[in-house]
Design goal:
It is a single chain. This protein is α+β, with helices and mostly antiparallel strands. Among the domains are: 80 residues, OB fold (Dihydrolipoamide Acetyltransferase, E2P) (Beta Barrel), CATH 2.40.50.140; 35 residues, no CATH class. It is 13% helix and 29% strand. The strands form four sheets. It has a five-stranded mixed β-barrel. A three-stranded antiparallel sheet has the order 6-7-8, with no helix packed on it. The protein is rod-shaped, with a radius of gyration of 34 Å.
Length: 199
């Protein structure tokens, strides 16, 4: 048995080292494959561990995040991080089937059963064209730079202020207002014109 045990010992060590838990200590996000330094539960510090992430999604974990370390071939010569989680910032309370993307600042995108919910306390920036099909309900002010083209009726509750000319058809509302303000009526009893409107 001793001879068998000695022969199996290297294999047993490789199996024990195959997958271990670790804690992220440093992150190098410059390489095309992100590199992590981790402290393993085996009381080792491992440098240059490749952090494998799924196509289309990349993260930069905080120190203190937890990782699963895979030792390819059972040797620490090729350490790979196959999962990285941070329980400090995980969004909880999701219903079955819901999916969420979150960070440590409270920014979230949640695919709820009732629809997609975006929370952006730091603001939301969209670069590129946006096509919206359906109704848009907005609460709050809108600031826009650039032209607006609208097809269909426009209903406004409240005042409309313009710093330049507003055109209705072929006529300028500014010109129409000037004509209205200057117009006079004949008074049949005195055969004289009235003054211009005061209100």
């Amino acid at each position: 048995m001793d001879a068998v045990s000695r022969r199996l010992a290297p294999l047993a060590r490789r199996l024990r080292n195959l997958v271990v838990r670790a804690t992220v200590t440093l992150v190098d996000d410059a390489p095309t494959m992100q590199s992590l330094q981790v402290a393993a539960t085996t009381e080792e510090t491992l440098d240059a561990c490749e952090h494998w992430q799924g196509y289309g999604l990349t993260v930069h974990p905080h120190p203190g995040a937890e990782a699963l370390l895979l030792a390819a071939g059972g040797t620490r010569a090729m350490p790979l991080i196959i999962a990285c989680a941070d329980r400090r910032y995980r969004l909880t309370g999701l219903e079955q089937g819901e999916v969420a993307l979150q960070d440590d600042q409270g920014q979230t995108i949640v695919l709820r059963r009732s629809g997609i919910e975006i929370t952006a306390p730091q603001g939301l920036t969209i670069t590129g064209d946006v096509t919206l099909t359906g109704n848009l309900t907005q609460t709050g002010d809108t600031t826009q730079t650039g032209d607006v083209t609208h097809t269909g009726a426009l209903a406004v509750t409240g005042s409309v202020a313009a710093t330049t000319t507003v055109t209705a058809g072929a006529a300028s509302l500014t010109a129409l207002a000037a004509t209205f303000d200057a117009h006079k009526h004949w008074v049949t009893t005195t055969f004289a014109k009235t003054g211009t409107p005061t209100t």
